[in-house]
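User: Could you check the structure of this?
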Amino acid sequence: MKYILLALLSVSALIFVIVYFRDIVKRRRAFSKAPWLPLSGIGFVTNFFDTLGIGSFAPTTSFYKFTKMVDDRVIPGTLNVGHSLPVVAQAFIFITIGKVAPLTLISMMVAATLGAVIGAGEVCKLPVNKIRIGLGGALIIVAIAMLAGLLNIMPSGGDAFALTGWKFIVAVVVIFIFGALQTIGIGLYAPCIALVYALGMNPRAAFPIMMGSCALLMPWASLRFIKEASYDPKAAIGLTGLGIVGVLIAAYIVKSLPLNVLKWVVVVVILYTSVMMFRSVKKKEGAEVCKT
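Assistant: Sure, the predicted structure tokens are below.
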């Protein structure tokens, strides 16, 4: 079953690569004047920490906004297109070495992908700030629960690598929603880590689930951005190239982290993401997440 899943990811990635690089060749003369070094450097750094579970969308967006090297209009497309192949590399590594039960893993990956394809249209109708506030608050609650366990104030987490019964249903439904949120720029990693932990799974189970989900949904979501030329091709190449190198280096660090250390890393990741959610809330409430 694991090899079938990897084959599915391979086919998706191959289709994406063909479309992606054809478009790069077609648009090569329209590349921006932004320097290659910082564009590639941010690809390495963000994907290194992405492999540790911190996520890449928020720090990449911050870099682009600070340097003004990428037009705000094409940032979402650039994130999805540029980070797709590094995320596929992450998925291959963690699905291969992971212990998550095949049914749990595949069901959550497919649900997240369906959320990206089907659910994003409905999510687009919601006020973005309310989504950010809700997720930010939920993440803080989970982080507090994890801290209480690490400090022996209350029982901590679990060791399961499979979900059954009501927990399985909850996981599939919630990650479907996370998949929809992923396509509008709200990262899936930290919410997925929180979900896995809240359902009593081993924190290591989050890595193949969240990376596999993104690796399946991002290439397909990116095809629309490519078709509409709604991304910066030069910046995307910068994310892709050294991004894959950053993934390969970080993967071995994550693999060797003791479980207790990993739990502390997870707490930091969740709190960081929660803070970023609240900081992203604008003073004026937007009517909808996206316009059509």
